[in-house]
Design goal:
With about 350 residues, the protein is of the alpha+beta class. It is built from eight helices and twelve strands.
């Protein structure tokens, strides 16, 4: 079957409030033959949009990403960007993933490096950092981000509110303006210029098994306590296996624990359900048999750990957790419905 060679691609753009531009980016994806736009996730408080594309032909998938990149870079300027979610560039992050049974991580890596070469060259001229199978040493995305200051908020550079079109606090955005360090000699890119264009920033580009983004809202204004909860559940903080986590402001009175579930085999199940702290192990976004065989924690384990840690810090029960993208089974179904070959 043709779909056995299916590849997926997540494209993260540092814009979540300009509805007209987001619709334009969606239209560009849909114009490329034999590429399906399987999901769009727009987060206004984070001022960030994730587009998920699927295709069986890597060249066509690359063409769709380049069309999105050209439009986003033409319309957006990192110097005027403000958000409560970290970012390194306008085209902030692109990840490629094998989805079909015969698709391989090497194919995803080849597509990533081909795309990176084009983004590094004119007319884009972006510094490109590879990770996962696209990098010779298998470097992790978190390492790049840590080296480039992704996790260090800089409220001082923002002079106003978050600018969200919905409810918003009046506090300055945690991330605003160009990258603090535009010269990249301390951590050179793998391709492209050795300095970050002030308006565009840099792009991280990788090839890895499918990653699920799972976010859980905490109803607190205590940033230190929320950060402690995030540390408690993360692998780096001695918590759950295969979990990356950080605490981010997400509107007034809400701080989210935003997690990447990087160690779990998400080959079955559905991402459509929210997961609450009272969910039993047979419900939610993970199939129980998949969870049992997982190499890392699943959403329900993360939900339970966050609820327990929040209680230890005197917080009320967290809100239902939710995923921001689709699972491989859902992406395969989207490809079928789109008639991909």
């Amino acid at each position: 079957m043709a779909l056995s060679r299916l590849l997926g691609c997540n494209v993260y753009i540092s814009e979540g409030r300009n509805v007209q531009l987001i619709r334009r980016l969606e239209e560009l994806c849909q114009r490329v033959p034999r590429v399906a736009l399987a999901n769009t996730f727009v987060d206004a408080p984070y001022n960030r949009t994730g587009l998920t594309l699927v295709a069986t032909n890597s060249a066509e998938l690359t063409a769709a990403v380049l069309a999105v990149a050209e439009a986003a870079l033409s319309a957006l300027d990192l110097r005027s960007h403000a958000a409560d979610h970290p970012r390194l560039g306008v085209l902030d992050h692109v990840s490629l993933h094998p989805l079909g049974q015969q698709a391989t991580l090497q194919q995803a890596a080849d597509a990533a490096t081909s795309l990176g070469q084009q983004l590094a060259a004119a007319p884009f001229g972006l510094p490109v950092y590879y990770y996962g199978a696209a990098h010779p040493a298998g470097r992790r995305l978190a390492e790049i981000r840590r080296q480039l200051g992704y996790f260090k908020a800089d409220s001082s550079s923002s002079s106003g509110s978050s600018g969200c079109g919905c409810k918003s606090s009046s506090k300055p955005a945690d991330w605003a303006g160009s990258l603090p360090e535009q010269q990249l000699s301390h951590y050179p890119p793998d391709a492209g210029p050795s300095s970050a264009p002030p308006a565009a920033g840099v792009v991280t580009l990788g090839a890895v098994p499918w990653v699920v983004n799972f976010n859980v809202p905490l109803f607190t204004a205590d940033r230190a306590a929320a950060a402690a909860v995030a540390r408690a559940v993360s692998t780096r903080g001695g918590g759950l296996k295969g979990v990356e986590a950080m605490a981010l402001q997400h509107g007034p009175g809400v701080i989210e624990v935003a997690t990447n579930l990087i160690g779990m085999d998400w080959t079955t199940g559905s991402s459509s359900s929210h997961i609450s702290s009272s969910s039993d192990s047979s419900r939610g976004s993970a199939d129980p048999q998949t969870a049992a065989a997982a190499r890392g924690a699943g959403a329900e384990q993360v939900m339970a750990a966050i609820a327990a840690a929040a209680a230890q810090h005197g917080m009320p029960p967290p809100g239902p957790g939710y995923v921001t993208n689709k699972l491989p089974a859902e992406l395969l179904e989207a490809a079928r419905k789109a008639g991909l070959q």
